[in-house]
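Re-running the complex after MR caught last week's input typo. The corrected sequence lines follow. Everything else is unchanged.
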Amino acid sequence: MDISTQAVQLGLYWDKRTGAVTMPIYQTATFKHPGLGESTGYDYSRSGNPTRQALEEGIARLDGGARGFAYSSGMAAIANLMHLFRKGDHLIVTEDLYGGTYRLFEQIFSQYDLSFTYVDTSDITAIAQAIRPETKGLFVESLTNPLLKVADIKGIAALCRERDILCIVDNTFLTPYLLQPLELGAHITVYSATKYLSGHNDTVAGVVVVKDPVLADKVYFLQNSVGAVLGPQDSWLVIRGMKTLGVRLDRQQENAMKIAEWLQSHPKVQKVFYPGLPEHPGHALLKEQARGFGGMIAFEVVDQSLVQQLLLKTNLISFAESLGGVETLITFPEVQTHADILPEIRQRLGINNVLLRLSVGIESVDDLIADLAQAFDSNRLGADRGENK
Amino acid sequence: MKFGTRILHNGHEIDPFTKGLSIPIYQVSTYQQDSVDHFGKYDYARSDNPTREALEETIAHLENGTRGFAFASGMAAISSVLLLFSPGDHLVVCEDVYGGTYRVLTSLFSRLGMVVTFVDTTNPDNIRAAIRPDTRGLFLETPSNPLLKITDLEAAAAIAREHGIITLVDNTFMTPYLQRPLDLGCDIVLHSGTKFLNGHTDVICGLAVVKDKELGTRIRFIQNAFGAILGPQDSWLVLRGMKTLKVRMDESQRNAIAVADWLTKQERVTGVFYPGLSTHPGFEINNRQSAGPGAVLSFTLESLDLTKKLLENASLAAFAVSLGGVESIISYPAKMSHASMPREEREARGISDTLVRLSLGLEDSGDMIKELNLLING
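Corrected-run output:
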C-alpha cells in the first residue's frame, strides 16, 4: 500500500463499539483493572494511551519499523534516545545540525560524558574517518537544516552496521512519504512531528520509530520512565494532520521547485540551496533514495539589507520559526533556529547573515512568487509590519 | 487573600486580549515575528505558549514561588529537574519514594553517573548521616507513597541548607492548598499534576516550582532544551481542574478521615497508614507543617485472599493506578506504583503483598464504608 494511503487510514475504525471513523481522544489518566494481575492492555496513560498508540502504531507502519513512540516535542524525542548511550560513549553528528539538537548535545548531554564529533555527513568518508573505538552512535539529518545537504542513508547505514554503531536518522525534512531510512538500513528514525507530519503549525510533538523489536523495548522503557509523552489531544491532531501528508507534500515540493527556479533567476539572489535543482550536489543521490526533494529552500541574498526587507515586507509569507506547515514561513537561521551554534562554526558551515530559509506551504505558487517579488522590490523600510496591521 | 480565592483570582483567570473568563487554548507551534532584531515574547511553542504559561504562573503563585514549569508528566518534571545535577553528584532520597522516581534514579540517572542513597527521612538524623562531601540534592516526599510517612520539611531543609544542598519536594499528595514546601525553606517543589491538582483523572501532567530566580533560569533552560513540555489542551484542562482544588480536597479529605477511622476498628485490617490519625507517628509534624492530612491512605489486610477479594470486587473505588481524582481509586502498590522496585527493596520498605492504597474521591463516605464493610467483613 502506498504511504499516502496508509497515512489516510491512520486510527480508522479503531472504536469497535461505535464504529466511529476517527480515533477517539482518550482524555484519561488511568484505566480500571478487570482483576488483580489483569489489564485491558492500558494501565496508566504515561505508559500507554489508546490515542497516542494509534499515532505510534501508524508512524511505525509508515516508516516500516517495529514500534513507534510519541513525545511532547522533537527535542524530547531526541533527548530520550540519548539515554540509550552510556558515559564515555562517542557519537558522530551532522555538522549543520538543528540548533536545538546541538544545544541539547553540547549543553546537556556533554556534561554526562557523552562526546560528539560534528562532521559533514553528506561525505561518507568524513564519517568513516571520525569513527573511534568508543563510537556508539551516529546522528544524521537526512536532509540538513538549513543548508539542505543530502546524506547517503543507505551507505551510512551499511557503514554503521559494519562497525556496530547505532544509526539514528532525523528525517523531519523528508518524512516517510519521501524517504524511508529504516528500509535503507538505519536503526532508528526521529521526527519533529511539529513540522510536516502534523503539518498545520498547531502542535508541538516528536516521534521516534525503531526497526528492531528488542531495541524498541529499550526505547519504550525510556519513554515510560522519563515520561516526556505526547498528550491525547496533540496525538489526535498529529494523526489528523498526517492524513493529508501526501497531498500536502506533493503540493509543497511542486511549489518549492518553482520558487527555487524563480529565485535562481532573481538578480538579488546569489545562491539557492534546493536539492530539486539538478546542479545541487545531493540531487542525484536523493533522486535515487527518496521520492522527492521536499519543501524547504535556503537562499542567499546579495546584500544584508535585503534580509530585513524580505522578512518584514512579505505579506503572505510569515516571518516565524518552525517549518513544514501548510502556511509558508520565512526564517533567518543565523539569529533564529541556529542561534545556539557558535558563530565561527556557523560561518564555516555557511549559515551567514545573508542566508534565509523558506518553508514552502500549499498556497498558490503564483501568489507566493508575487509576494516575494514585491518584497524584493520594496525599498520602503519604514514601520515594522506589526504596526501596519 | 485566602487560598480558596487565590485559586480563582490570581491574575490568570481572564484572557488579556478578549477579556474572556477563561484562558484560550493556544493550539499553535510558532508565532509571526515583527522585527529581525527583537523577537516577540513568543517565538516557538516549545519555548513559550500562553496557555501553558498561565498554568505555570498560577502554580508558581499558589506555591509562593517565583517561577513554575509545566511538563508532559510528573516523571518528565522530575527527570528534567534532575538534569540540574552532574555526574558524580550524590543525592539523598526518601526510601519509600514513588516507584517511577526510584526507576529513573536507579536505572537512568545512575548511568549518567549520579549516585543515590535511600534513607528513612522521617528522622532528620538519618539525613544528616547520609550527607557526603559530594551530596548535592535531597529529594523528599511527605506524606510518602504509599506508606504516608511524614518528614519534617523545615528541619530537613535546614540541614540541606547548612550543607549547601538543594531540597526537592514531591508535593503531589498535598498540593499547595495543604502544604507549601517553599515557605518551609525547600528549594524546588514537584508535582504529578495528574493527581489532585488536575483532579479529574483525565490528564497526564507534571509541574515544578522554584523560589530562587537563578534556579528558575536553570530549569527554564532545561525545560526548553529538553522539551518535555505540556501541550496546550492539557495545560488548559489542568487550569480548569485547579479551580475546584479546594472544594475537592476538602471533601476528599473529610471522606478519608471517616474511612481511616472506620478501618482502624476492623479486625481484618492489620494496619492503617494515614497522617490524620492521632496514632500516626508523623501526626504532630504533619499538623504543624500542613493544613491537613490529605485524601490518600493505605492499609494492610490479614490475608492475600482478602486483599485480592477487595481489589477485584470494589465497584465504588476503581481498581486502577493513579490517585487524586474525583473518583476514588483503590490500588495495589506491590504490583502497581512500586512494581519497578525489586521485591526485597519493596518489602524492606514495608510495601507488602497485603498493602492496599486508597485515594478518596467525592463519593459519599457512607457509601464507601458500606462497600468496604461488605468486602472486608462480608
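None of the earlier attempt is carried over here. Confidence is low (pLDDT under 50) at residues 381-389 of chain A. Chain A touches chain B through 69 residues (CB under 8 Å).
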